[in-house]
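Table S2 (text version). Query chain:
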Amino acid sequence: MKKTVTIFISAVCFTYADAQPKTWDADAAHLHRAEKALTDVIVHDVFSPNVASRIYAYANIAAYETLVKQQAVYQSLYRQLPGFPAIPAPGQTVSFSLSSVYAFLLTGKKLIFSEPALQDSINHILQLYQGKKITKSMYDASLAYGKQVSDSIIRWSAADQYRETRRLRRYNFSKAEGKWIPTPPGYMAAVEPYWNKIRCFTLDSASQFKPPPPTVFSKEKESLFYREANEVYEAGRNITEEQRNIANFWDCNPFFLQVEGHVNFAGKKISPSGHWISIVSIICQQAHKNLLESSAAYTLASIAVFDGFISCWDEKYRSNLVRPETYINAHIDESWRPLLQTPPFPEYTSGHSVISTAAAVVLTAIFGEGFAFNDSSETEFGLPTRHFPSIKAASAEAAISRLYGGIHYRPAIENGQQQGQKIGEWVLKKIHLKG
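Corresponding C-alpha cell output:
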C-alpha cells in the first residue's frame, strides 16, 4: 500500500514584538507590533483569506473605537456600522494608547486558535508600557477599559452569522460542464461556500456590486472562452522572469502543497488580507502617521477588504466557474500546470483583484494618488522587496499576477478590479472617520 506523508512547513516566527520600532511615533509602533503579532498567529493557524479578513477587521475596529474617545476629530463607528454598540468613554483616567492596543490584541485573541502564542506577544507589549511613567492605577484602568471595548466588539461580532456558517460547511459540487471542481495536488474541499451569508459592514447586501456574468463556457476553439483559457496557457508557457516574480510576490496562499513522490510538503504564507495589513503598516510608518491616524488607516482598509471578500465570494459560488487548470488540462494540454497552486474555490471573480483594488481605493484617499513605497511584506517568505509608484499600482500588479500565476482568466481580473473599485468607493461614502 502506498503511503502519503504530509510535512507542514511554516516560516512564521513569533519574534516581532522584540523588534526595534520602525516609526517615529512610539505609541504607533506598539500598534504595528500588535498587527504583526496577530498576522504571525493567523499564518500559523492557517485561516482562510475570508476568515483572516474578519479577524483583522474586528481587532482593528476595537483599537480604533478605543482611541476616538480621547478626541473630537475622528468619529465613532456607532450608527455607521449595522448594530454597532454604543461604547461609553472610560470612567477613569487611562492611557488610550495602552487601552487601544490591548483591545486590539484581546479581540484578536478571541478570534484565533493559538491563544498562548498571541498571549506571549501581549505580555511583551504590556511590558513596554510598564516601562513608561504610568501609575499602577492608570495601568490597571487602561487594561480594564481595553477589555471593556474588546468585550463589546466580540459581542457585536457574534451576531454576524459566522458561527451559523460553520454548520453549513458541507458543499455539493456541480457535475454540470464548465463548473468548478477541486484541483490538484490537494483536491481540497470548497473554502467558505456560504461566506455571502456573513453580515456586511457597509454593503446593503452581498450582491450589491454583482459583476457582469463571466464569459459563456465553451469547448469550441473559435469561442471567446477558449481564447481566454488559451491566453492563460500561453502566458504560463512564455512567462518572463519579471512576471514570475510578480506572481510569486502576490501568491498569498495561506496553505499550499508541494508534492515530491509520496511526500507532501505543506507550507504556510501570508494571506491577501495580511499582505494589505502589512502594506498599511509600511506606508503609515513612511508617512509618520501617529497612533490614531494609523489605527484609522488599518480600520478603513480592513472594512474594505472584509466587504470585498463577501462580495467576491457571493459571485464565486453563484457563477461557480471552472478554473483554468481544469479547462486547459481537459481541452488544450493535459500536462500543463500553473505557476501558482490553484486555490480551492471557484474562479470568478478574482479575490485578490477585488480586495486589493478596494483596499487601494480607501488607502489612496488617505495617503494620496502618488504615494510611492517599497513593499517588504514578503521578505520573510524569501521574496525580495518590490517598489510601487503608488498604492493603486500595487493593487493593479496584485490583480494581473493572477494571470501570470495561471489561476485566473482575464475577465475575472478586470471585472474583479471594477467590483473592488465600487466597493472601495462605497466604503468611503458610508464610513466617515473624520468629523
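Notes on Table S2: Residues 291-319 form the longest helix (29 residues). Residues 1-24 have pLDDT under 50 and may be disordered.
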